[in-house]
Amino acid sequence: MPEIAPGAFHYPSFLEAAAQTALAEEIAKVIAVAPLYVSTMPKTGAPMSVRMTNCGALGWVSDKEGGYRYEPRHPQTGTPWPAMPRRLLDIWNELARYPKPPEACLVNVYDETARMGLHQDKDEADLSAPILSLSLGADCRFRLGGTRRGDRAKAFALSSGDALVLSGPARMRYHGVDRILPTINTPLPEALAALGVRVNLTLRRVT
Ligand code: MD6
Ligand code: FE
């Protein structure tokens, strides 16, 4: 039932309210150590509308000169990323069905106007590992396309507490966030509420 396309699993309300609050508190601690930053696009240097940080051994970064890549340190503080909370490793073990632990957790913070263009996650050396995402706060309209950019996409809402796994034949599907849905709004838990309206975490195996 959660399999919405071969290899793509959507678990609505996977995290109940108390688990969302506990996760938000841990992510707030991550952000306190590894402040949110604005990434820029390769080549153009255009800023992304989403603010980011990471936890885990590696973090996803992007800038004009270096492009998309994983780095062991925060691009502004130069400090290693904070450890991945145990809670996230447990969720990976429950949902990812992959023998090795995630090495990176990208934290994306959206305000009401932020979006994420259609993309493939392909900066990981190990493309056989799934990517697992968790959403907190406002609903968004999420678009899941095919493995070619022009393929027909299906759009659905990702809501607070939802988990999404892209694995196997779905791992290289294009996807993005069309927009935040302001009307059907779950506020972010208190610990994160000052930072934006929606937070998405993506857990990745990199090497
Ligand atoms: C977001 N999510 O929900 C962006 N990528 O804000 C992603 O880009 C994503 O949800 C890979 C797997 C699951 C995802
Ligand atoms: Fe993605």
UniProtKB/TrEMBL annotation:
Cofactor: Fe(2+)
UniProt binding sites for 2-oxoglutarate: 108-110, 198-204
Annotated binding of Fe cation, by residue: 119, 121, 175
Pfam families in UniProt: 2OG-FeII_Oxy_2 (PF13532)
The keyword Ribonucleoprotein belongs to this UniProt entry's keyword annotation: no
Family annotation (InterPro entries): Alkb, AlkB-like, AlkB-like_sf, Oxoglu/Fe-dep_dioxygenase_dom
Alphabetic keyword roster: Dioxygenase, Iron, Metal-binding, Oxidoreductase
PROSITE patterns on file: FE2OG_OXY (PS51471)
Domain of life assignment: Bacteria
All copies of domain Fe2OG dioxygenase, residue ranges: 101-207
Keyword Oxidoreductase found: yes
A single GO cellular-component term on record: cytoplasm
Coiled-coil residue spans: none
Residues given in the record as substrate binding sites: 60, 68-70, 123, 149
GO molecular function, one term: ferrous iron binding
Organism: Methylocystis hirsuta
A GO BP annotation: oxidative RNA demethylation
Protein's UniProt name: Alpha-ketoglutarate-dependent dioxygenase AlkB
Cofactor note: Binds 1 Fe(2+) ion per subunit.
